[in-house]
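Fill in residues.
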């Protein structure tokens, strides 16, 4: 039986299907563009290729193509042979993901990986900051992510994807120097790896290395397909550093050409959260933001996320609605966000944004502190959740409590002490 690059049996005898599948998996794991067409080629070469259909479904999920993913999963299910337990659990993980059953998907994935740890397509679902562990809403999920990738690491040898994936965990648990070194190893093996470039940028950010980060990231980004899943998000990172260096022209260039909803081809969760975050962080840094941008983003949030429940999204949608003065939409989020995996925090943060918009700094302080308690449960990266850290500093400055704000930076984000995220902080 033919096998993939990780020696997993593929249950196909078509070399063409295998080659396209392996190429598609590499593009998918590297967060590069083109995985969908490779998986389409694979199943065209062998219509009975269950793993090819499953991978096509997974890649379409990441393209926000729900109907396409459902169709591919139906093919995988229909062609699944009797008694192939690992094929069955592989497909089941994706079915549970698509059905909105993340807790069940995580449980199935863990059981599957216990016997097939080198099934990277399944391991990928659980890894990084937007994965099943990242968005579990659980206390200690950063440590859980590290334990997860550490348990897989010995099974993979010197593999660029596994090194990348473990380095993400290291970065988010607070070991950015170790993460940076591991990302360099991964990039030396495969430069065209957007996830490694992404979290090398995170590692440099966490170490306050603004100039080195800008140089590395802008150089890497020049060769990245703008249809790649994190093209907009990597431009968000670049814009953050442009903000830090005071380069307004570079900042707006990144926003206007790659981050705004009208131009970004990434996932809606990235487009909304990145845009809300960068606009508010720019305001905190002292930049004037055209209210039309907040209105555009609020409308985008309402259209893309008519229902609450994704707590990381809800916390950012509330910010967009509050800044746009869209009171009804903001109140809807406050009323409904409690249903999310970290709903208690999302509701408090939404109330904090309401208070910020009303310039009620006392109430904003109380709600933001309540929402920030253990904010790892919201998911996303530390760099993304700095929105909350810096917002609280900005609120405290409004109350004339600058010493407290500076203490917060020193105590909670010591690696960023050299940064100037909030006007008037230093
Ligand atoms: Fe990021």
């Amino acid at each position: 039986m033919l096998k993939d690059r990780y020696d997993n049996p593929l249950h196909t005898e078509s070399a063409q299907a295998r080659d396209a599948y392996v190429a598609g998996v590499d593009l998918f794991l590297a967060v590069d563009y083109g995985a969908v067409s490779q998986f389409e080629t694979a199943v065209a070469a062998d219509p009975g290729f269950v793993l090819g259909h499953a991978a096509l479904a997974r890649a379409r999920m990441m393209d926000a193509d729900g109907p396409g993913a459902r169709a591919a999963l139906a093919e995988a299910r229909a062609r699944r042979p009797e008694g192939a337990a690992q094929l069955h659990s592989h497909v089941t993980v994706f079915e549970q993901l698509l059905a909105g059953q993340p807790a069940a998907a995580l449980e199935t994935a863990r059981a599957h990986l216990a016997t097939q740890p080198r099934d990277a397509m399944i391991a990928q679902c659980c890894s990084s900051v937007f994965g099943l562990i990242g968005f579990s809403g659980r206390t200690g999920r950063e440590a859980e992510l590290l334990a997860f990738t550490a348990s897989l690491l010995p099974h993979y040898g010197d593999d660029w994807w596994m090194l990348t994936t473990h380095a993400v965990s290291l970065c988010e648990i607070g070991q950015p120097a170790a993460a940076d070194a591991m990302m360099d190893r991964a990039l030396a093996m495969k430069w065209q790896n957007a996830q490694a470039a992404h979290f090398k940028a995170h590692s440099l950010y966490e170490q306050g290395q603004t100039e080195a980060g800008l140089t590395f990231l802008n150089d890497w980004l020049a060769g990245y397909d703008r249809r790649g899943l994190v093209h907009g998000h990597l431009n968000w990172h670049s814009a953050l550093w442009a903000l830090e260096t005071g380069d307004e022209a570079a900042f707006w260039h990144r926003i206007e050409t790659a981050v705004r909803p009208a131009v970004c081809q990434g996932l809606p969760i990235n487009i909304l959260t990145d845009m809300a975050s960068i606009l508010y962080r720019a305001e905190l840094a002292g930049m004037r933001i055209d209210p039309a941008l907040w209105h555009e983003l609020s409308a985008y949030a309402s259209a893309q996320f008519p229902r609450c429940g994704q707590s990381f999204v809800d916390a950012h949608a509330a910010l967009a609605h509050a800044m746009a003065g869209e009171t009804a939409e903001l109140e809807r989020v406050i009323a409904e966000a409690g249903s999310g995996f970290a709903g208690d925090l999302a509701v408090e943060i939404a109330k904090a944004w309401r208070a910020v918009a009303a310039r009620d700094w006392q109430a904003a302080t109380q709600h933001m502190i309540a929402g920030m308690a253990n904010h790892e449960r919201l998911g996303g990266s530390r760099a993304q959740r700095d929105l909350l850290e810096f917002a609280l500093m900005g609120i405290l400055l409004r109350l004339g409590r600058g010493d407290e704000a500076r203490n917060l930076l020193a105590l909670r984000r010591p690696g960023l002490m050299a940064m100037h995220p909030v006007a008037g902080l230093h």
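The radius of gyration is 21 Å.
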